[in-house]
Amino acid sequence: MDSEELLKHKEKIARQRRTFALAKAIIRRGRNAGIPEQFIRIKQEEFEQLLCTSYHKDTTEFANLVYKSPEVLFQRPYIVIDGGDAYSRKKAGYAILFRMIACDSHGLSERCGELASKFQSLSFKDEENRNQLVKRIKKEPVLLLHEFRIKSFSLHLTDSGLFFDQLLSFRDDYRKPTIITFATPLSNGVINTESAIKDDRCGAYLAMISHADVKKSDKVFRIRLK
How far apart are CA 34 and CA 145, in angstroms? Predict the structure, then answer.
């Protein structure tokens, strides 16, 4: 092997090492974000199979957009995932979170119902209180909120809604994307006949996001599952 070939070989090895180190770092960030091992590195074909063909029309093109041009996911403050079942929403949510983490970012996943309960609670013991909790998670570069459902919020106890407004208002202001999976399918089109929220028990922001398709909001990137 002459000197030129040796140099090329060394450069190839160095590139492979950098690629391997980068892949390890991304996977580590995924795990730190709370993504279970089985949902790390979901393939494009798996994601495409989850998509609703009547909503997205060309699901291959949409999956290509998400996987080949993931920067589009950072262009709107909210990414809404609805339709499907609990498992497919979980899979799609983690797939989107991992794609965004792979764009040199960090993230966190939380269950919406658990957050609602913590925001409602006045008993903390040795745990962080709700002000500390919202202060911590509102600054996450990417946040995934699993399984929003209106039943997690009380019409008479509005603390949870106020804290969600505080959380989502900050993230909107500072362009920190929030992924939200909705347990009930949202309206599709111009008629609000499904589960768009009609009161403020969960706060103004979650109610606004639930009307995204009806109002053609430019703040929401929507992913509808079959």
Answer: 12
Over 70: is that where the pLDDT of 123 sits?
no
Sign of CA dihedral 84, 85, 88, 89: positive
Measure the CA–CA gap between 23 and 18, rounded to whole angstroms: 9
In three-state secondary structure terms, 212 is helix
Helical ranges in the chain per DSSP H: 3-32, 44-50, 53-56, 59-68, 86-101, 112-120, 130-137, 159-173, 204-210, 212-215
Answer yes or no: are the C-beta atoms of 76 and 109 closer than 8 Å.
no
pLDDT one-digit tens code per residue, 143-173: 999 999 988 887 777 789 999 999 999 999 9
pLDDT of residue 213: 67
In order of their start, the domains of the chain are: 33-225 (3.40.50.300)
Mean pLDDT confidence for 165-183: 96
Give this prediction's pTM.
0.89
DSSP 201: T
Contacts of 111 (CB under 8 A, 6+ apart): 145, 146, 147
Using the Cα atoms of residue 164, residue 167, residue 171 and residue 173 in order, give the sign of their dihedral.
positive
Cβ of 59: how many Cβ atoms within 10 Å?
17
* CA 170 to each of CA 137, 204, 208: distance values in angstroms, whole numbers, following the listed order: 10, 13, 15
